[in-house]
Amino acid sequence: MVYKIQSNNTKTQLFRVAKNLLRIVPVQNWPHMVEQITVHELKAKIERGDNFILLDVRTHNELDICRFENALHIPLHELARRFVELDPNAEIIITCHHGGRSQQAAYFLLQKGFRNVSNLVGGIDAWAALIDTAMARY
Asked: Distance (Å, rounded) from C-alpha 80 to C-alpha 51?
């Protein structure tokens, strides 16, 4: 388990208190963990021609700066009413600017019964920095 901390009694006691207060459970037992995918893994999926939906949850204004060509665009603030447009059995990779909003969107979809949902770590900014350096950044 990940519960081991240095043998210093003070640290161990503080950890036990925090563990009890927060009701910490091992990560593998969390019911709705959002899988994370790197930009390198996404690039490999694209190159292999894997079948998935790339969902961009950024605003319309952000799309004017840069975008993934084949991404489906549903801004995060519209996802609660538009998630029915998505196939709950499809693999869905969600992106935003840095990965925060896409993480929220992924968690939302998991709560709605979607099971094959991933968050793009670092979002489109990581893609522009590491994969497509010609892409505009903001």
From this structure: 24
Q: Cα separation of 112 and 9, whole Å?
A: 43
Chain segment 53-66, per-residue pLDDT in tens = 999 999 999 999 99
Catalytic residue chosen out of the listed positions 74, 93, 96, 121: 96
Question: Which residues of 1-138 form beta strands (DSSP E)?
Answer: 35-37, 53-56, 72-73, 92-95, 117-120
pTM of the complete model: 0.77
DSSP SS3 for 15: helix
Q: What are phi and psi of 54, to 5 degrees?
A: -100, 110
96 catalytically annotated:
yes
Rounded to the nearest 10 degrees, how much is the dihedral formed by the CA atoms of 74, 58, 136, 65?
80
Distance between CA atoms of residues 7 and 49, nearest Å: 50
Which residue in this structure is represented by tokens 């975008």? 67
